[in-house]
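Holo prediction. Input below; ligand is adenosine-5'-triphosphate.
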Amino acid sequence: MVSKVEVSESNVILTERLSKVYRSFWGLPRVRALNEVSFAVPSGSVFGLLGPNGSGKTTIIKLLLGLARPTGGRAVVLGKPAGDQKARARIGYLPEESYLYEFLSGRQTLDFYGKLFGMNRQLRRERTEELLNTMGIDRRDRNRRVGSYSKGMARRIGLAQALINDPDLIILDEPTTGLDPIGTVQMKKLIKELQQQGKTIFLSSHLLADVEDICDRILILYRGRVKMTGAVDELLSLKDVFELRARGVKQELQDKLSDLVESSGAETISAGAQRAKLEELFKRVVSEEIKQKDN
Ligand SMILES: Nc1ncnc2c1ncn2[C@@H]1O[C@H](COP(=O)(O)OP(=O)(O)OP(=O)(O)O)[C@@H](O)[C@H]1O
Ligand SMILES: [Mg+2]
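Structure of the complex:
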């Protein structure tokens, strides 16, 4: 399924038939990692890219950042072609695995990235303290080297590093990887707060349950192709569709259940709908059966 994409000022990311084939190297076969992927990310939204391992999530992110080049289609990020340097300065990026310099402390790490963005000493100091507070890194841990941090703390420093330049667009590759349930909740809370500050967040995950409650829109990727895309409420309502089929249901009972049944045949009824409706139908079939047996 290819989504219809509208070119609009309010889309922070726009891709059109984005494709990537990794070239063969040292005799390895060519890999078609992405196949005509089109989607749009509205400004101010939390957009979730979902898919199993190897479905092409990191490849999309690399193309959006200009770290890899597409073999087909195009991507526009913050109104510029993907990889544009001016646009890149407005993007924060948390890689799949944060490459932190383990001998630097949390505080030094943020200061270092601030320098890379050309921030002056005063601004770096303010921004570093602000981010350490937001990320909930304890005062006593701030001067400890990040090599000794727990996974959750390292992930939070990774996110802080992605935010040092106060970006408008934040791209997070598997932000909840390696986090325990509490760490996951904290990370999601941070993402929501960033959205409230007006930022657009684009994140990837292989677990729907990890991100469904924070995403406004999701795209489901499978083997480099778009399987589904849309608002989370719409997609999740699909998840709740069940079907109930009952056999041996007499005509008299079928008539009584006609408000709930969608199709019926000789002694069979069937209905496919929301869980609540089917539970009601199931209850009524059972209670009517019991009544009939009692008579
Ligand atoms: N540099 C590369 N050279 C060749 N093939 C690659 C390269 N990078 C990725 N691939 C292949 O492209 C496909 C998509 O990989 P990608 O890393 O984008 O998936 P992913 O959805 O991020 O997976 P994961 O959940 O494991 O991070 C995979 O088959 C992968 O092996
Ligand atoms: Mg990946």
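The pocket of adenosine-5'-triphosphate (ligand 1) is lined by residues 22, 31, 33, 51, 53-59, 96, 206 (CB under 6 Å). That is the main takeaway for now.
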